Amino acid sequence: MQQEVVLAMLAKEPTHGYQLRTRLRDALGPLGDAMNAGHVYVTLTRLEKAGLIAVERSADGTERSDRKVYTLTPDGQQRVAEWIAEVSWPKPDLAEFHLKLIAAAAAGLADPLTIVDTQRRELLHRLRDAQRTAMAEPDHSDAALLLEGIVLRLQADLRWLEACEKNWTHRRSGS
Amino acid sequence: MSDAADIPVLRARGLRKEYGKEEGLVRAVDEVDLDIGAGETVAIMGPSGCGKSTLLHLLGGLDRPSGGQVRLNGRRIDDIGEKALAQLRRTDIGFVFQAFHLMEELTAVENVELPALLAGRSPRAARRRAEELLERVGLAGRARFLPSALSGGQRQRVAVARALSNEPSVVLADEPTGNLDSAATLDVLQLFEGLHGSGQTLVIVTHDARIAATADRMISMRDGAFVDETWLTGGTTGRLGALIGLED
């Protein structure tokens, strides 16, 4: 997970490791199940080394990460402010798939329509999972909003596949 | 004799539908074989003009094939008389269309009870059944509304209730969300999930991926023929994290 995400989730107040994980779980819902606790703590260690967070050991002196309290340093606060203001958007790699179809057709490696069919199957499986997970979420949950975004995105990808299918069908019948 | 449970609700063999002749010949449905088991939800997807609506019409006895067979619960329906076919369409098959096809001058409950009345049920039994069905699709409070007073999503739910009026063996839906916005699509989607859960056999022809994703099985159609088939049950649970880049 991106370091800035973990950093920003700590911005509200000094936070125990276990509180941070609860916050992420609430925001992500079932999607957060894929998140591994060890990975979050590795990120925290990196942030500490970079001087973006300060760590207080717990009163009982244990070294368990979830008992430690994490606070943003002034550098950390500045990094969060920059990240919030940044315009970024995850890029789906459409060019790779597009070039795969072109290369497959040009070199006779595979039928582009078969590649489209295979991709559609995979996306439909994902759409089914995302949709079912979304329907099982309580109303107004944070995770439901995220799942809605995923469903919309998969729909857009599937529509593009439809366009690919149409286009490659034409090319085949035209040749 | 094989057990009744082994007989597919719908079976097509070598099903063909052709229009025109010689150079103008169009094979709208080209040698399709299909088995739909009891309780199964099957989505048929494909670009417009691929023949999927024509196929649905052949399966539902709305149109006659140029060749091949269709069996409903083991009984051939492609070669039976017009009267017997009309009877079968009323009692054994439920249809849901993109444009709803409700009778505009009848209220919601009157639309829903109509197939039961035509099938010879008593007015009282037909009304009771229609009211139950409207409750099932979440429209008990709209029973006395005319279709014109309902939203698109509500109209489609009335149409689904009507399709269930005579407890059909199979419900055939042709682009059921084609005229609906996103929120109304979600309503219809949940309704279909509910039907599926109750064991209703469903065949949905669509190019809406959301509705196709609720099916057990998805079939892709191109140029009148099946070109791909996938079972969606089983899913990819555990890979959801990949959707948002949480996994390394």
From TrEMBL, chain A:
Residues 6-81 form the Transcription regulator PadR N-terminal domain. It comes from the Bacteria. It holds the Pfam family PadR. Gene3D superfamilies: Winged helix-like DNA-binding domain superfamily/Winged helix DNA-binding domain. This is PadR family transcriptional regulator. It comes from Planobispora rosea.
UniProtKB/TrEMBL annotation, chain B:
SMART domains: AAA (SM00382). CDD domains: ABC_MJ0796_LolCDE_FtsE. Residues 10-248 form the ABC transporter domain. The keyword ATP-binding applies. It holds the Pfam family ABC_tran. InterPro entries: AAA+_ATPase, ABC_transporter-like_ATP-bd, ABC_transporter-like_CS, ABC_transpr_LolD-like, MacB-like_ATP-bd, P-loop_NTPase. Keywords: ATP-binding, Nucleotide-binding, Transport. The keyword ATP-binding applies. GO terms for cellular component: membrane protein complex; plasma membrane. One of its GO terms (molecular function) is ATP hydrolysis activity. This is ABC transporter ATP-binding protein. It comes from Planobispora rosea.
